[in-house]
Amino acid sequence: MLVGTAHADTAIATKADPKIQAMLPAKLKEAGQIRVASNVEYPPFEYFDTDNTTIIGLDKDLAEAIGQKLGVKLEFQHMSFDAIIPALAANRYDMAMSAMTDTEERRKKVDFVDYFTSGGGFLVKQGNPKNIHSLADICGISVAIDKGTTEIDDAKKASDDCVKAGKPEVSAKILPGTSQIVLALQAGRADVAMIDTAAGAYIAQQHKGSFEVPGTSYAPRRYGLVLPKGSDELAKALQASVQALIDEGTYGKILAKWGQEVGAIKTATINDGQ
């Protein structure tokens, strides 16, 4: 699976919906904006353009469309991925949008409005020299993983299974950011990177001839817009916005722009992850 090259300047617009606007909490209507936490290092979902300032990506385009539906601006703020949930818990932001997987463990602290499906996978050097296609293939292998992601737990479980089978454990290297795991793979400090299939495919496309994504996802999962617990009013407004974008076709156009049609959902849900 390879992702097509997108053009950040190709705007996809929609129209405001008064019924959905009426669902938005009064304080956000008055503010005219929703504060969004995001780790802007995860192409094609959110990353900095060549000016190192402008934020682009699938999530940013979807946020623009959601904002148009609601009549407010969704203002992104970059931070490390593992700092997002604590920032929401401290009410420093109204929501987060960072290709975050909706999991039972995370739902103890935050709520999700699910909008996309992806899943854990692998990024390897071209030709797949270690012949990695599943979690069973990474015994004794050096694996680079982004700090704070669900792939850490996947690697631990895989390592436990390796040991039970009498094979060497997985050597996991936890690194701060997607760019660091790609560098580790390039430099030979890791044999494989564990990463969502969507992001891995985008990286492979950007580094033509250097990397590939073998096989399919080993664990399909939902991505969600992330909200502090108790944000029921905002959650329902966001759910209605995403559903409206799906129904009118704007959602599909945004996914197609970033080559991510395979992750499309038909129904926006709340806390519908694993």
Automatic annotation (TrEMBL):
Has the keyword Signal been applied to this entry? Answer: yes
InterPro entries assigned: Solute-binding_3/MltF_N
- One Pfam family matching this protein: SBP_bac_3
Q: Which residues form the Solute-binding protein family 3/N-terminal domain?
A: 33-262
Q: Superkingdom of this entry's organism? A: Bacteria
Tell me which UniProt keywords the record has, alphabetically: Signal
Protein name (database record): ABC transporter substrate-binding protein
User: Which species does the entry assign this protein to?
Assistant: Labrys neptuniae
